[in-house]
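Record type: monomer structure entry
Structure origin: computed from sequence
Chain ID: A
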Amino acid sequence: MPLTTALPSGTNMALTVATQLLLLLVWGTAVWAARPGAELLNVCMDAKHHKEKPSPEDKLHEQCSPWKKNACCSVNTSQEAHKDVSYLYRFNWDHCGPLEPVCKRHFIQDTCLYECSPNLGPWIQQVNQSWRKERILNVPLCKEDCESWWRDCRTSYTCKTNWHKGWNWTSGFNECPVKDACHPFYFYFPTPAALCNEIWSHSYKVSNYSRGSGRCIQMWFDPAQGNPNEEVARFYAEAMNGAGLHRVWPGLSGLALILFLVLT
């Protein structure tokens, strides 16, 4: 006699399917919630000079040295970041005359953060540009770092608000277009937020949080005290992971209800 198994029918079958689906949703939710957003942590951008993966670089140059224990930049990149017109991007900081040394230090540190930090994953976005496939967008820069950048650069000169575009590159490095006159920084950037938010096409967004809060990225930090941006990246990665779960759960639970109603 062939062995047969009785299958549920009608309402029982609907209840069985709906129950199994709900159990699957609960399991999937638990798995999702357990994910720490690891794909956003300890990563390098797919950009012009970044390494594929972060790793130690014991000899990083001067202002890039805070990242020597774990860096997305090479030693050579860190050295070039300190030059006035380097091979990195052929960008001339002194396009309206020499920047004040205290001002230029912020731009070097900004370059080091961009090139070396493995803690910018939560803000990496894909782009279709000839020189990079990814960029950062709206990184929450600690308000003190932004304010000191603006304060130290107020009396230096520039000719543009957005330094990513609109330059005259005919000489091989950036020069001011004829229509853009040189003025002190405060003319183009009347507030700290104007400087930090606009100068690199909203790569940064000045934060209301302070240094040491664990909620904003520090451009400057003492490596002897550890890298505070690791905690910040982890916080935002977990927050983004939770937001994704919040968005997807209503749809999944709604699907379970619809299937239950259809089958009963």
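Annotation 1: The radius of gyration is 25 Å.
Annotation 2: Strands lie at 124-129, 132-136, 139-141, 157-158, 183-184, 204-206.
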